[in-house]
Amino acid sequence: MTRPPLLLVPGVLCSPRLFAAQVAAFEGQADIVVPDWRRAPLSIWDNWQSAARWVVDQMPAEKFALAGLSLGGMLAVEIMQFAAPRVTKLALLDTGMRSQSEAERAVRRARIRLADEGRFELVLGMQMTRFIPAYRLPDKALVDAVMTMCSEIGVEIYKRQEELAAIRVDRRPDLPRIRCPTTVVCGRDDAATPLFLSEEIAKAIPAASLAVIEQCGHLVTMEKPEETNLILKTWLERRA
């Protein structure tokens, strides 16, 4: 039996480690591709379409299931703008579809300036408070795994990802046109993309369901891999 193709798209500062638990769980059931930002030319971050097209180019199969977390979820919806017929089902994890306010753009660009000034370690520390809930910060294994992943991506890619996130357009008007089976997933305590953003996505997509993971923050795939895998298993088994 042919295994269904599955494209997993990481977010800001996320290497393929983000989906290590999912690859381990589903590699016998699906042909999985996880784009590695380190292998992409920096020019893909010039605009949303170039980044989304580079992601799709990593997937050789004509039809595939598509999942993305955070910036990866935003890219997944960008992919739906030009490649929707190729996507059999969609999973949007800990993401949002709103554009950024002037204040939000200013915060992102302040982090970019810190990185430019050689204070990337400080930026990573700031990101930890967005990625992991305060009550999980004593979990050294989790924090070390996330820090290792973020360090792998490095300063130059991070700066371009952050700027791309700052200039994103509001994709909420496009959500009702998504017709494939869709699962929206969010950690209850996600500080980076709060739950209400996932709730409005699930409400706007006609064939969407919402799954909330309790006692969990932004990186559901790493923080609560077993719960996330159960949700994704159900999603993968849904008939397209």
Protein architecture, described:
The protein has 240 residues and is an alpha/beta fold. The chain has helices at 20-26, 48-57, 71-83, 102-116, 120-131, 140-166, 195-204, 220-223, 225-237, and strands at residues 5-9, 31-33, 64-69, 87-93, 182-187, 208-213. It has a six-stranded parallel sheet, with helices on both faces. Helix 1 crosses helix 9 (225-237), helix 4 packs across helix 5 (120-131) and helix 4 crosses helix 6. The longest helix has 27 residues, at 140-166. The protein is globular. The two termini are 17 Å apart. The mean pLDDT is 96.
Instruction: Provide the structure class.
Output: alpha/beta
Tally of DSSP helical segments: 9
Mean pLDDT, nearest integer?
96
**Largest sheet, order of strands side by side?**
2-1-3-4-5-6
Weakly predicted, low-confidence segments? none
